[in-house]
């Protein structure tokens, strides 16, 4: 049976299960470490009190043993001196010390066992703390790696060589449209110029015909 009350909400027994369900294992481990440090402090305080109490009980046993032995020696001396009455008084007191020795020895034994149990539990607490602290370092490193990976993914979102062909395809389409517009305008200008040229040729031909007709008319009048 434990000699001190556990104060932790999280223990090693349920830490692994809660870690699997936690989205922030480092915070959960920190909570465990804080509670464990508090429990270690309480255990150390209780250990100090138990050690002092056990020491006092041992002193009671030692003092009672010394007085019992002393009264027994006094009873022997009284008997040797023929003082039986004094010997009985010494033996009566010796019997009281015998009872005290028995009582305090039982208390001392119980206290010593509890002290040893507490020392064992305190050792287990400190071992748990060290093991979980090492795990905390490992999980912190993993969470930091994950955080940096997420930042990198956010930064690289929308970038990548897979988008380059699409970008150039759009640019190619735009340039092709501009080239088609330019060719269309050039063809339109050429058609217009050809029309002007053709119209000018027709006018010139008509003008030559009219000039020739007038010349012929003049010639005919001259012959008259």
From TrEMBL:
State the InterPro entries in the record: PspA_VIPP1 (IPR007157)
Which residues lie in coiled coils? 101-135, 168-224
| Keywords from the named record | Coiled coil
Family, according to the entry, reads as follows: Belongs to the PspA/Vipp/IM30 family.
| Descriptive protein name | Phage-shock protein
Species annotation: Paenibacillus vini
């Amino acid at each position: 049976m434990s000699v001190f009350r556990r104060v932790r909400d999280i223990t090693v027994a349920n830490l692994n299960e809660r870690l699997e369900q936690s989205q922030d294992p480092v915070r959960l481990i920190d909570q465990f470490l804080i509670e464990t440090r508090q429990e270690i402090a309480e255990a150390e305080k209780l250990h100090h009190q138990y050690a002092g109490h056990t020491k006092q009980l041992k002193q009671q046993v030692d003092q009672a043993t010394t007085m019992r032995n002393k009264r027994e020696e006094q009873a022997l001396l009284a008997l040797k001196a023929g003082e039986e009455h004094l010997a009985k008084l010494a033996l009566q007191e010796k019997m009281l010390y015998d009872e005290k020795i028995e009582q305090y020895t039982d208390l001392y034994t119980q206290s010593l066992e509890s002290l040893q149990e507490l020392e064992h539990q305190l050792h287990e607490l400190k071992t748990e703390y060290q093991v979980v602290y090492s795990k905390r370092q490992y999980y912190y490193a993993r969470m930091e790696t994950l955080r940096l990976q997420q930042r990198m993914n956010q930064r690289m979102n929308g970038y990548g060589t897979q988008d380059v062909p699409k970008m150039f395809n759009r640019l190619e389409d735009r340039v092709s449209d501009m080239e088609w517009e330019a060719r269309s305008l050039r063809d339109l200008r050429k058609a217009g110029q050809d029309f002007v040229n053709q119209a000018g040729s027709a006018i010139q031909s008509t003008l030559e015909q009219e000039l020739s007709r007038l010349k012929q008319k003049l010639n005919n009048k001259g012959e008259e």
